[in-house]
Amino acid sequence: MKIPEQLIQSLHNTKGFNSKAFEALHESGETITSIRINPFKTTIEKSAFNQYENIGWCENGYYLPERPSFTLDPLFHAGAYYVQEASSMFLWQVLQQTITDTADKKVFDVCAAPGGKSTLLATYFKDGLVVSNEVIKQRANILNENITKWGLPNVVVTNNDPKQFQSLENYFDAIVIDAPCSGSGLFRKDEEAIDEWSENNVQLCSQRQQRIIADTFNCLKQGGILIYSTCSYSTEEDEAIADWICDNFNVTNIQIQLQAEWNITETQSVKHHAYGYRFWPYLVKGEGFFIAAFKKNDGDTDANKIKTQQLVTTSKNEIEVLQSFIQLSSAYTFFKQNETIRAIESKWLNDIQTLAKHLFIKKAGIAIGSVKGKDFIPSHELAVSILSSETLAVIDLDKEQALQYLRRQDFSVTSEKGWHLVAYCGLPLGFIKVLPNRINNYYPNEWRILKQ
Ligand code: SAM
Fold this sequence. Notes:
The protein is α+β, with helices and mostly antiparallel strands.
């Protein structure tokens, strides 16, 4: 693995950089596998993760001794855990130290695909609302899939350019910008990133990062927290951006307390001495990463009147048919997107109406299903959400049957006619419909496992 010489040269004066250790690490071929478990999808299997080494800065994060085939693990598809690089889970620690009261907070994940930070945010802000945005359409589909599998009802997935959020002034309590970057921190995991690296690209990324921050900063309330991160080692994309933020906005940079055994390197930017946190992979058990946090000092604590859009409501008859299928807590409100009935906690309805006016919403809350005459057709989103297992009976499959289900192959179960949730280790995977002479498999075709 040949690390670009210009990158090595550019890092010589950066705190914690050791060129020999850096090059040796990239030569070593060592890899690290880590996952973050979903505390809302508890199964007997989950406790098995406790045998693994915990990631010190994130209570739900674990290192695995080797990389299993995640594709062939039904629990992966059930959203029991997310495969996430360990350093980036430090976001959990930053949140714990900057936002202790999480109730009813609105959080904006600006660059969200494939969904690592958003699933972490949805977990941390379980009583809040996470707007998880991705500008690139195809990547927004992957984001949607991962958010759906995670199964929490407090997420809205949008597919917008950051500047389209400008009308949501003073709206969010926190903004996370995990910015597109030159990617040097992931060289060990992705050798192709080495070929794409250039000094010119570092400059272009730095400009793009500034643009994304400038486009979204006004969405933050007074007192709100901006968290900025990259997986680049280049100071132009890290400490220099921290200085740029301090130059252009009225913010206070926040120092994060570190435990010595984490071996994370605290740096300070040249001009404003803003604290940032660097993850050097020869010091930390994780990939290259940078993160810094800021508090906004000016602006308003409340969004002024922002235009809203009425959502399509569900009829009494539709609610009755839905409730004959599933009883949901009265904390939820229903609305319709095309023919699909969705559920969102009632306290977020106004916010969904605001977001719907200004953004392209791919998914808000949980799709419950649609009404066809007297019949209710449940959505896959409902199956893998934490709403389903509370109320619907499940048929537990063994591993082989679960994989057949996830491949959309035929398999047999003995059960009464009608709709059933199928599960693995108690965690729902999706719906089937049992007919007199066959079983219809409702696992989404586009998500089916192709690997044998
Ligand atoms: N936060 C994600 C996670 O933890 O899974 C990773 C985000 S990745 C580092 C950066 C994302 O920014 C990519 O999904 C990329 O498509 C998106 N992106 C690229 N150009 C962008 C732009 N101009 N504005 C906003 N996002 C952009």
